[in-house]
Amino acid sequence: MIRVLVPRECRSGETRVAATPETVKRLAARGCALTVEQGAGLASGFDDAAYREAGAALVDPGDGSSQHWSQVDVVLAVQAADLAQQRQELKALQPGALLLGLLEPHGNEGLKQQLQQQQISSLSLELLPRISRAQTMDVLSSQANIAGYKAVLLASTALDRYVPMLMTAAGTIQPARALILGAGVAGLQALATARRLGAVVYVSDVRAAAKEQVESLGGRFINPPEQEQKPGESGGYAKQATDAFLAEQRRQLTEQLALADMVICTAQVPGRPAPRLIDDAMLQHMRAGSVVVDLAVAQGGNCEGSQPGATVVRHGVQLIGADALPCTVPNHASALYARNVAALLEHLLAASGSEPTALSLDLEDPIVSGCLFTHANAAGGAA
User: Fold this and answer.
1) Residue 287 domain-assigned?
2) For 361-374, what is each residue's pLDDT tens digit?
3) Which of 168, 198, 204, 258 makes a 20 to 30 Å CA pair with 125?
4) Is 237 a catalytic residue?
5) Active site includes 195?
6) 162 catalytically annotated
7) In terms of domains, do 66 and 175 share one?
């Protein structure tokens, strides 16, 4: 029987949890024994009684004991990097135990060395390959969906005018014009949400292939600048565009920004700083009272002047640094995250046999090898 621990998150402002009562039942049906730290799901709307009713054992994380950590095979977390660095109980894990969660793997050599020294295997969900078999496990996509949705709500709340077109006795109000930068998961959800609110939506993306998706959702695609070699994507993720391409794109966007009421910035490249798409000179062309929501602010931001977790007014434009939007929708964010994690764990269980007593990581499996961060004393993934 695989023993699974769901600890309470320790990052400030983190409201999500890595397992819900629904996924506790689901994993218990696969032969797992789950232990949940008391209060782990409260911020997400899941109380301890619901976990107990689902079949989990509850433990008090404040009793000073690390006994329940020493007895588990798998730890499921959201902010697993913070968990590893802040929870001393992690040192009680037995060699060969598996840590599964968001490990911020790019450039995090210190964490990798720490886990290797403890001989802890770890899977970083940020590195999960975007292949068909891994779609149900794709945490980044499920959380980006929420971020794109909430970004438009933030923008519409901060905007100084209506979003939909209204025909009133006092005259007709024209619909707001939204500009989405990036047609990935977050961008497409932002497009769909803005359209539902009644905005006219324009979308810019470096990939010409995104046009069909944008238009299928009712958006108007801004064709990228013509170049001999256009940026595309690799493994389902956007590739870094050249500086020349981005400069040409910024010139193209200046005209669009001057017409926009709300702008949603979603362009990110894994392991690299976010491309700077809007500079200070471009902001000066925007209408005073318009709004920019920067979802890439934690990676440096697509918009100059945006700050993580803050709203800044620059040239009369509100810049909203939205770096943790899934945490503002914790119930559904946790439900989706937990289903993704459960699907990955079920995949590992299936590979380990019909009634596994220990997990076996198949390094030939592209799902495992793709997101492997540490494995005993051997490193994997991207540091």
Assistant:
1) yes
2) 999 999 999 999 99
3) 204
4) yes
5) no
6) no
7) no
